[in-house]
Amino acid sequence: MAHFLLIHGAAHGAWCWRDVIPELQALGHSVQAIDLPGHGQDSTPYQKVTLDAYADAVLSALDRPAIVVGHSMGGYPITLAAERDPSHIQRLIYLCAYVPKPGLSLSQMRMEAPYQPLLPAIRMTQDKLGWTADPAMVKDIFYHDCPPGTTEYALENLCIQATQPTSVPVETGANYASVPKSYIRCADDRTIPPEYQVTMTQDWPAKDVYTLPCAHSPFFADPAGLAHLLNKISEQ
């Protein structure tokens, strides 16, 4: 059985994996979900949060060989972590996540997509160093296919997302190239266009690309289905 390290996306925290963790454990896996700096129970001020700090947090949590899953924005820190030290990373799994392109920040990649469904919901902080999602738009963007109560639970936990981690590129080399990778597309995603998820993985081997018929939060919409797919990937 595998050990999974789960990395959340923008404005989220370890809390978003609440329903997936027991499903993976029921399949015999060990699981750890962490709060990146400035998220969840981590009290780092968003003004001091950096992509480097995100990657450091991922590496600090890798006390044993693990399959590292990054959701959405989490694709950037897991990529940087793998480039810095791949020794404990058995596989990277991008869950409807950004796969860094050379020279491009996440924000620049977002603008490469054929449309930008998240942008209308972004509300910048006064200092422009962070943003939150408009509460009135959160359900439609993140959770429209999730069970009742999901949006309310999320609104109690969503945090300010620092802008610095999404404003810098990640350069990769031999370390990153040495790590096996899989991608899980979400076919009804209303945050990262499904078409762009296809673009990001168009040159990947077909055996490493999977699709779930849900939106941007499969950990709430179909935690059992996501866990079984992660289990399948772990057996490769």
TrEMBL record:
PANTHER family: AB HYDROLASE-1 DOMAIN-CONTAINING PROTEIN (PTHR10992:SF1086), METHYLESTERASE FAMILY MEMBER (PTHR10992). Keywords: Hydrolase. One of its GO terms (molecular function) is methyl jasmonate esterase activity. Residues 4-227 form the AB hydrolase-1 domain. It comes from Thalassobius vesicularis. This is Alpha/beta fold hydrolase. The keyword Hydrolase applies. It comes from the Bacteria. Pfam families: Abhydrolase_6.
